[in-house]
TrEMBL record:
Organism: Lacticaseibacillus yichunensis
Membrane topology classification: Multi-pass membrane protein
Protein name: APC family permease
Bilayer-spanning residue ranges: 32-54, 60-82, 103-131, 157-174, 186-208, 214-236, 257-282, 302-324, 353-370, 376-396, 408-427, 433-454
Subcellular location(s) of the protein: Membrane
Major subcellular location class: membrane
Domain of life of the native organism: Bacteria
Length: 455
């Protein structure tokens, strides 16, 4: 076997489809939508509608969310077809491995590891900041030494809350999916109730004159706003990582992915409509526009409740992403591209992969300032989206794969459009992001050619 034949070889399909039989199938459509909403609806819903309206789109931010959702739905449909045809662990990594070959599967998997781990680490520091401000409201202040990332010159050594919340989520997930899904559904319920409360209360303070002019930045503002809020929808792809633990995956997975996107779009648009109706869009370029609007209408107690909603949102996002990243690392270890330790299943759960991921994220969140690394989350996501989108074409041509479930409508136009839009968004990312991603993928290729290539 030549070098490139070995690098581009594809796994045995029947063996791959049977590889995850040790994992228990317990998840329903309701669980998947809760997972998806948990990942997609985070603190962004309390921030993005205000800041993007103020700087880019005006009250037309609602159209920007709708446009972004339409574009995002292209990738979502591609994910839904793959999930229906190949209900295996590993999400986009596994799909790429099967239709493009081992090397491309590894590149996609390495991109997703970057996306999931950095996203959770960054959100854990935001969670810690919100939690400290909540404690401050009760006159409780933590020592500076345990209140921030490692910076000895400023007297900070570890962000203890960020570390603890990640470890708690890891512990919950290690106890089994029934317990963690119950807690996830509860948190998602709290978050949705708080969003509904804001929309209902805010309706009484809407002034239609605040929606004039509706498009102050013109059609260009809608397009620019859509490119910014596109990233608000990221996370639905995490649903497909649960494939081997889902009941009736051919029907349940597409419902979970597409249902997540529809519900998220409705919620984002409702918040945007009410927020820009309550306050002139020119005043919304603040760090916490929803709380700002509530304070403006003399509802400070409700503004405090919004902070609880933000904490719930961040908690569910971290739980979904830690769950997804553990299944990804498990799938890569199962296939031999990482040591087999990561691919072992203990009591129907891949706990070796789970605890490895949890500890790495806890260290990153507790010690490393992540402000410069967050853009890498976007490029990792877009690389996975691009491969999944264009991968529908070889999937349809694969003679061994029979998909009797969901299929992307408008084939092959929709997958190609989705692929091109991912490339367009990647081209908008700053040069530093590209340079840092090249370093990350360089490290990934060293690991692949020194271990995975031979195993």
């Amino acid at each position: 076997m030549s070098f490139w034949q070995r690098a581009l070889r594809k796994p045995d399909l029947a063996q791959t489809l049977q590889a995850d039989h040790q994992l228990a199938r317990t998840l329903t459509t309701r669980d998947l939508i809760a997972l998806g909403i948990g990942a997609v609806i985070g603190t962004g819903i309390f921030i993005l509608p205000g800041t993007v309206a103020a700087t880019t789109s005006g009250p037309g931010i609602t159209l920007a969310f709708l446009l972004a959702a339409v574009v995002c739905s292209l990738a979502a449909m591609c994910y839904a077809e793959f999930a229906s045809a190949l209900p295996v662990a590993g999400s986009a990594y596994a799909y790429g491995n099967i239709v493009f070959g081992q090397l491309f599967g590894w590149i996609i998997g390495w991109a997703l590891i970057l996306e999931y781990m950095l996203a959770v680490a960054a959100v854990s520091t935001s969670f810690a900041a919100y939690f400290r401000s909540l404690l401050a409201g009760f006159s409780v202040t933590l020592p500076q030494a345990i209140s921030g990332s490692f910076a000895p010159a400023q007297g900070r050594y570890v962000d203890l809350i960020a570390v603890v919340v990640v470890l708690v989520i890891g512990l919950l997930l290690s106890r089994g999916l029934s317990t963690s899904m119950t807690i996830n559904r509860l948190m998602v319920g709290v978050k949705l109730l708080i969003i509904a409360l804001f929309v209902l209360v805010g309706c009484f303070y809407v002034r239609p004159t605040n929606w004039q002019p509706y498009l102050p930045f013109g059609a260009k503002g809608i397009l620019a706003g859509a490119s910014l809020v596109f990233f608000a929808y990221l996370g639905f792809d995490a649903v497909s990582a649960s494939a081997p633990e889902v009941k009736d995956p051919q029907k349940t997975l597409p419902r979970g992915i597409i249902g997540t996107l529809i519900i998220a779009t409705v919620l984002y648009m409702l918040v945007a409509i009410v927020l820009t109706g309550m306050v002139p869009y020119t005043k919304l370029n603040v760090a916490d526009p929803v709380a700002f609007a509530l304070n403006l209408i003399h509802q400070p107690k409700l503004a405090g409740v919004i902070s609880i909603g933000a904490l719930a949102g961040m908690f569910t996002m971290m739980m979904t992403m830690i769950y997804s990243s553990s299944r990804l690392v498990y799938a890569i270890g199962r296939d031999g591209l990482l040591p087999p330790f990561f691919g072992r299943v203990v009591h129907h759960l891949p706990n070796h992969a789970l605890w490895t991921v949890t500890v790495i994220i806890a260290v990153l969140g507790g010690l490393v300032p992540l402000t410069q690394l967050v853009n890498l989350v976007n490029i990792g996501t877009l690389i996975a989206f691009a491969f999944v989108s264009i991968g529908i074409i070889p999937l349809r041509r694969h003679k061994q794969i029979e998909n009797t479930g969901f299929k992307v409508p408008g084939y092959p136009v929709v997958p190609i459009l989705s692929f091109l839009f991912c490339l367009l968004l990647m081209s908008q990312l700053p040069l530093e992001t590209w340079l840092m991603s090249l370093i990350w993928f360089g490290i990934g290729l060293v690991i692949y050619f020194s271990y995975g290539f031979w195993h």
